Amino acid sequence: YDDVKETLGWIQTWVSATGLSMLQMGMDRSSFCQFILDLGLVDQDKLPFVWAVSVFDKRAKLLKVTSSDPEWVDPHLETRSPVLPVVSKWDRMEILDS
To answer: Is 70 helix (H, G, I), strand (E, B) or coil?
Structure first.
């Protein structure tokens, strides 16, 4: 439990330092990629970046991205909404544990 709590603290510190907004339910793919690079969690010989991101991709769920601002949506999308691959906070911890 303590190691999970410590890792969550690292994540929150990193999010605050980078100025990124964290989704309440988890982390999106681009933030995850930047996170593992910034903390030096990947190494092309021991833990390849591509493998780490593939673990994220296996667990990610698509989240529909919406806004109450009508000008935010691209008019070419018509009634479609963009989606963002996101992992929950729990899945993020399991990925880091892999």
So the answer is: coil
